[in-house]
Design brief:
With 119 residues, the chain is of the alpha+beta class. It has a single domain, classed as Ribosomal Protein S5, domain 2, CATH 3.30.230.10. The protein contains three helices and four strands, in the order H-E-E-E-H-E-H. The protein starts with 12 loop residues before the first helix and ends in a 9-residue tail after the last helix.
């Protein structure tokens, strides 16, 4: 069973700002992923959904989808990266499978997936 401990999730505003500012972004219709080469000994991940997506229920659903997608695929990601996943308007009405495919495609494009990592 894959777990995503709370200590691995970005929470501080400064951490989010550093990844936004210094990370490289990759986007598709559903997600934007910011990749920042971390020098710490533990990789972290953050999830964001802006108010443009809709009300709190909608934003939380998008963040839950991204969190679950990351949790189930975290073993496919190379160590040494801090990631920030940002939901886009296209993700609001989509099912988990589409979001997962979008995440894996962005991971391949960003070069953060381990060799031979398949769905």
């Amino acid at each position: 069973m894959y777990k995503l401990p709370k200590r691995r999730i970005l929470r501080q505003k400064g951490d989010f700002q550093r990844v936004y500012r210094l990370g490289k972004s990759y986007a598709n219709h559903y997600l934007v992923i910011y990749v920042f080469r971390s020098n710490g000994n533990e990789d972290k991940v953050g999830f964001a959904a802006g108010k443009k997506l809709g009300n709190a229920v909608t934003r939380n659903r998008v963040k839950r989808l991204m969190r679950e997608c990351f949790r189930l695929n975290q073993d496919k990601i190379k160590p040494g990266f801090t990631l920030l996943l940002v939901g886009r308007k296209g993700a609001v009405s989509e099912k988990y499978e589409k979001i997962e495919n979008a995440f894996l495609n962005l991971g391949r494009k960003a070069g953060i997936l381990k060799q031979g990592a398949r769905r």
